[in-house]
């Protein structure tokens, strides 16, 4: 509390990312999405997510993709609900605050919030397992007015 330094290097970004996944993978609310649904290969994933944060926080330009697309694909397998994002943010904010303090640490929280909010909104336009099942062909669904 108050004694941490700020995020300054790529190694700092990696430390943050590893600490976050250490919690996220074991989390009772979102852990299964990484371990069971995405079957995340953490050692392959850490460099990419470190690129992302190095680009956001340290102006590194090492990340040049759309971060949204893999989440849209994931949402097709398991519905990513607002509550999942809220939990993701809770863990991220907690990890940042545990390890770092300062302007970059604050930016890490602010930018995560923006991205999460954008993802939550955009995902609502993408297919997910929570969508109503399509009617079988030829079946006509009629609505009856119970007041008649
Ligand atoms: C230092 C300045 C910034 C850097 C280096 C930066 C970098 C990035 C990167 C690398 C991504 C992921 C690429 C992508 O998915 O398209 C991203 C996504 C995003 N950023 Fe930033 N950003 C910055 C400032 C901002 C600001 C000022 C805002 C809003 C006021 C913002 C809002 C967002 C949002 C909403 C997304 C997710 C977009 C989506 O729906 O895919 N960023 N940013
Ligand atoms: C419910 C919340 C979230 C879940 C369950 C989740 C899960 C995942 C998973 C499983 C992947 C790997 C996908 C793949 O490689 O096929 C991934 C990639 C990634 N996630 Fe998330 N994520 C969440 C929210 C966020 C947020 C809020 C951000 C940004 C602040 C973010 C940033 C990224 C980035 C940068 C990648 C790497 C994409 C790439 O390969 O270029 N995620 N996420």
Any overview of this molecule?
The structure is a single chain. 58% of the residues lie in helices and 0% in strands. It contains six helices and no strands. Helix 3 (42-58) crosses helix 6 and helix 5 runs antiparallel to helix 6. 16% of the residues are buried. Residues 30, 33-34, 38, 40, 45, 48-49, 52, 65, 67, 70-71, 74, 80, 84-85, 88, 112, 115-116, 119 line the site of one protoporphyrin IX containing FE.
Question: Would you kindly provide a brief summary of this structure?
Answer:
The protein has 148 residues and is mainly α. Helices cover 58% and strands 0% of the residues.
Task: Report the principal-axis shape.
Answer: elongated
H/E series: HHHHHH
SS content category: mainly alpha
Low-pLDDT residue intervals, each spanning 5 or more residues: none
In angstroms, what separates the terminal alpha carbons? 67 Å
The helix fraction, in percent, is 55-70%
Whole-number mean pLDDT: 94
Strand content: under 5%
Number of helices: 6
Ligands present: protoporphyrin IX containing FE
Q: Any idea what the radius of gyration is?
A: 19 Å
Number of DSSP strands? Answer: 0
Biggest sheet overview: none
């Amino acid at each position: 509390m108050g004694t941490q330094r700020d995020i300054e290097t790529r190694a700092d970004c990696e430390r943050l990312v590893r600490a976050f996944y250490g919690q996220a993978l074991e989390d009772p609310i979102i852990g299964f999405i990484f371990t069971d649904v995405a079957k995340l290969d953490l050692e392959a994933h850490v460099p990419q997510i470190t690129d992302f944060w190095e680009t956001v926080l340290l102006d590194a330009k090492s990340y040049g993709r759309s971060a949204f697309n893999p989440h849209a694909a994931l949402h097709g397998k398991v519905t990513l609900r607002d509550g999942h994002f809220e939990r993701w943010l809770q863990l991220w904010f907690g990890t940042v605050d545990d390890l770092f303090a300062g302007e970059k640490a604050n930016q890490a929280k602010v930018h995560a919030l923006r991205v999460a909010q954008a993802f939550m909104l955009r995902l609502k336009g993408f297919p997910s397992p929570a969508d109503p099942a399509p009617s079988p062909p030829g079946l006509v669904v009629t609505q009856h007015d119970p007041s008649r």
